[in-house]
Amino acid sequence: MNADRARRLAEAAAEAGILLAVSALPIAWRTLDARLGVVLAGMFALLTAATYALHTVTFDCLRLTGDRQRGKFSYTQRKE
Predict the structure, then answer these.
(1) How confident is the model at residue 79 (pLDDT cuts 50, 70, 90)?
(2) Membrane spanning segments where (predicted)?
(3) 40, 20 Cβ separation under 8 angstroms
């Protein structure tokens, strides 16, 4: 795994952890047991994988099209 992929994975894990810490843990803290821990761990893995995939597709698309170096970030499909 190269440094870029490791950075993307770390960012994805941090984002998933923050999302779960803000949304699920305050509600689930009182009833936290082994089953709920497994569910939260599965949610963490799923959110990390989805965020990592989204980052990978986005950054690879920018790298392949060359828009990253030009600084061209269009939010629409329209050619200007």
Answers:
(1) low
(2) 38-62
(3) yes
